[in-house]
């Protein structure tokens, strides 16, 4: 460990001299420690070409066929002869049918010897008896003898990841140093003076800890069926608290004995190994969930994978929520880790008067763009049938232990507490939230509070910002509910994994409304969102920005809020609602950031085209917090796919801004063809629940069999949002830029019959993501040598 880390510090010191930027306007930046790495599976593929799908003996079935029967037939054909006798699969319960497109998204998990292969995923997209596309990362090797998965010294993926990272950083820093290239001023998240040191230290400070502990003879580590030692070692690597680190290392056996393990039985899933809950784990805020599983690790040649037996942990901490795989046998090595933080029918209640809010209205990105106005609760009978302030007592976390007057009792609230969002202050920066302060609406649910912050001295600046907590929480509640309703109307509904306490009998897992912290006291100049699987609350934390006097409040910059909430959208839609580990690092993790920027920018855009920055008001910087503002002008924003090879573009935020720029170009190509809609919100549903076309959708069309076709947005900006969300549903777990691109193009084929095929390809090709673009030597961190392609498919070329 000493040799590796000494080298990493040398690189970090060099990087500080080459890339160094002061924090934005001298403001403090509290950089959240976050682990995130895992193997690049060489055999994982996304197949969207019909010639790649109808293989072997499988043929399309009749249009009326049950999609799950189709899925089973296809899987049996696809997997025949590829895996050993001990390998099976199960179709996950979060599979669902998109009510608009009619596509059934089937999520499949590989099973070996009764255990899940945690990264063995197949996602099938099925309609009318046909498999339209599928992604496949199933382990294809032998399963009859997996003794090697228990051998403690076969592979050390954590060390290998860090060696790859260090080599990549050495190369990029050397290239930057020799070329003298200067990146433009950027965000603390991308090229700050300690970016390299932070990245290496967060992920690699304890790569040799498993061997250090094993050499000291901790007998408890030899028990493969006991998760405590593996978890304790992970906590040493994961916690940012050095006091906790030293305490665990000094008193390992004492902590081991203090931790208690209980079995959690699920009678509805008898094939899976029983999960465990582990209590009294240092630096956690809730019991840790644990389960035995297999994960795949590429072999030394890098052309296939081997199975390793691991403990899968879900670890909830104050600043992080990890899904980690740690080898079950000692020495307990971290194999992969994803941080979920990025950055009977109940009767309808009696309708009350809609609440009103004095806020910066939807479309007003921040206080620099306009004044506040009185806005009415947006009662969308489809997205939020009961409005924003009502939820069943049975689903209300503040009513636990309270016996309702009837099983179907409903609570109408007068604060920023509802079925979609719980918004409140979190000045202490702690995990508790139910009893935190939130404003009460005046008579008739009127949320009208003053906002007039004044410049003051440094010691009084925080107190001045806290005076306006009522408007901060109200604004966060208002924006978050509108984002919920907007994304719902484009297909992020209950079965797709959206965030609601009560799902109105429409499927999906309940009790997962967004916990929204305003003026979170755990840091400055940042924001983040934690996305656990469907059925667990998402957590959004907004911070104050000390980049100006008076302080600026991230709650009041809609683009930041929308970006964070969009992490919940993309994480739940990619790979299925119950799989939150699909956007953890590299290109897939970067796209998780890019979708947030793209959607936030699309929401604030108008028919009069303009370039846009991200976070410019909060950061008090005209250029915002990204390397470039989003622009169609290649002089203003020169980003192409090849840009990801440049120094400073290994972080997910930098990768994400390239993806967002590409989507911005693609979207504006659709706008050139189809025009612009002043509102992204579809028309309100009619009394019978049907959606009128209005000037939003094209006239309804029917198939030859009289079946209603999916609704198609008329305008380019609304169509682009629909295609991007539909593409998230189609793409596989851990997608690359190529696979996300292909999923969007297939989404158009499903929705419009492919009429925008050439428009989409033109947009992608303008920024180097044409059909022959490629990456050689891809690494899990996002490294590799990329080749831009500006060409078009042959069918799009004119004579």
UniProtKB/TrEMBL annotation:
Enzyme class: hydrolase
Residues at which Zn(2+) binds: 343, 563, 567, 593
Note accompanying the cofactor annotation: Binds 1 zinc ion per subunit.
Required co-factors: Zn(2+)
GO biological process: proteolysis
Keywords: Hydrolase, Metal-binding, Metalloprotease, Protease, Secreted, Signal, Zinc, Zymogen
Record-linked CDD domains: M36
PANTHER family: EXTRACELLULAR METALLOPROTEINASE MEP
UniProt-recorded name of the protein: Extracellular metalloproteinase
Gene (UniProt): MEP5
């Amino acid at each position: 460990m000493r040799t590796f880390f000494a080298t990493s510090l040398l690189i970090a010191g060099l990087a500080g001299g080459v890339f160094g930027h002061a924090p934005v306007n001298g403001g403090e930046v509290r950089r959240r420690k976050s682990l995130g790495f895992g193997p690049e599976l060489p055999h994982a593929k996304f197949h969207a070409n019909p010639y790649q799908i109808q293989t072997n003996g499988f043929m399309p079935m009749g249009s009326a066929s049950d999609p799950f029967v189709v899925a089973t037939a296809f899987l049996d054909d696809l997997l025949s002869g590829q895996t050993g006798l001990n390998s099976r699969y199960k179709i996950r319960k979060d599979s669902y049918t998109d009510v608009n497109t009619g596509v059934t998204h089937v999520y499949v998990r590989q099973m070996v010897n009764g255990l899940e292969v945690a990264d063995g995923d197949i996602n099938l997209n099925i309609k009318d008896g046909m498999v339209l596309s599928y992604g496949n990362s199933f382990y294809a090797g032998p399963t009859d003898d997996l003794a090697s998965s228990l051998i403690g010294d076969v592979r050390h993926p954590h060390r290998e990841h860090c060696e790859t990272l260090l080599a990549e950083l050495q190369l990029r820093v050397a290239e930057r140093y020799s070329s003298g290239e200067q990146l433009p001023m950027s965000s603390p998240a991308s090229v700050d003076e300690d970016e390299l040191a932070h990245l290496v230290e967060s992920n690699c400070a304890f790569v040799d800890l498993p061997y250090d502990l094993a050499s000291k003879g901790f007998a408890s580590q030899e028990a493969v069926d006991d998760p405590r030692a593996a978890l304790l070692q992970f906590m040493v690597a994961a916690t940012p608290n050095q006091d906790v680190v030293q305490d665990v290392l000094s008193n390992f056996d004492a902590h081991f004995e203090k931790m208690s393990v209980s079995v959690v039985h699920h009678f509805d899933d008898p094939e899976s190994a029983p999960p465990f809950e582990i209590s009294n784990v240092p630096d956690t805020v809730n019991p840790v969930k644990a389960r035995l599983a297999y994960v795949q690790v590429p072999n030394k040649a890098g052309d296939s994978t081997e199975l390793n037996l691991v403990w899968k942990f879900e670890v909830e901490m104050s600043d992080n929520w990890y899904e980690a795989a740690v080898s079950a046998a000692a020495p307990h090595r971290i194999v992969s880790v994803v941080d979920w933080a990025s950055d009977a029918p109940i009767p309808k209640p009696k309708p009350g008067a809609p609440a009103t809010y004095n806020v910066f209205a939807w479309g007003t990105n921040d206080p620099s763009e306009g004044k506040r106005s009185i806005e009415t609760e947006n009662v969308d009978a489809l997205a939020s049938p009961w409005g924003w302030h009502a939820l069943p007592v049975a689903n209300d976390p503040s009513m636990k232990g309270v016996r309702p007057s009837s099983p179907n009792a409903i609570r109408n609230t007068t604060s920023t507490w509802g079925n979609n969002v719980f918004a409140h202050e979190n000045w202490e920066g702690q995990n508790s939230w139910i009893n935190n302060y939130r404003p009460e609406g005046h008579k008739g649910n009127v949320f009208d509070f003053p906002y007039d912050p004044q410049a003051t001295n440094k010691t009084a600046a925080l107190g001045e910002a806290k005076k306006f907590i009522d408007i901060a929480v109200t604004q966060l509640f208002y924006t978050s509910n509108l984002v919920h309703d907007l994304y719902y109307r484009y297909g992020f509904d209950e079965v797709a994994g959206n965030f609601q306490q009560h799902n109105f009998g429409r499927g999906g897992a309940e009790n997962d409304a967004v916990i929204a912290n305003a003026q979170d006291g755990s840091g400055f100049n940042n924001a983040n969102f934690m996305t656990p699987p469907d059925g667990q609350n998402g957590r959004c934390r907004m911070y104050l920005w000390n980049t100006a006097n008076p302080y600026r409040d991230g709650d009041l910059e809609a683009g930041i809020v929308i970006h964070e909430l969009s992490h919940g959208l993309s994480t739940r839609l990619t790979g299925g609602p119950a799989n939150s580990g699909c956007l953890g690092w590299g290109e897939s993790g970067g796209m998780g950031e890019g979708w947030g920027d793209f959607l936030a920018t699309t929401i604030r855009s108008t028919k009069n085209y303009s370039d846009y920055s991200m976070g410019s008001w909060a950061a008090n910087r005209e250029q915002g917090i990204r390397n470039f503002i989003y622009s169609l002008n290649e002089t203003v924003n020169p980003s192409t796919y090849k840009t990801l090879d440049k120094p400073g573009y290994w972080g997910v935020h930098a990768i994400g801004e390239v993806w967002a720029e590409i989507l911005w170009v693609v979207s504006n190509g659709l706008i050139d063809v189809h025009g612009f809609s002043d509102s992204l919100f579809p028309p309100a549903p009619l009394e019978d629940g049907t959606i009128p076309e209005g000037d939003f959708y094209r006239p309804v069309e029917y198939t030859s069999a009289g079946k209603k076709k999916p609704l198609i947005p008329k305008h380019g900006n609304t169509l682009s949002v629909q295609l991007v969300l539909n593409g998230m549903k189609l793409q596989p777990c851990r997608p690359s830029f190529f696979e996300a691109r292909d999923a969007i193009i297939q989404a158009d084929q499903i929705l419009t019959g492919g009429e925008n095929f050439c428009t989409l390809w033109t947009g992608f090709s303008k920024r180097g993501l044409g059909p022959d673009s490629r990456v050689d030597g891809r690494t899990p961190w996002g490294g590799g040598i990329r080749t831009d392609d500006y060409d078009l498919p042959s069918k799009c070329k004119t004579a």
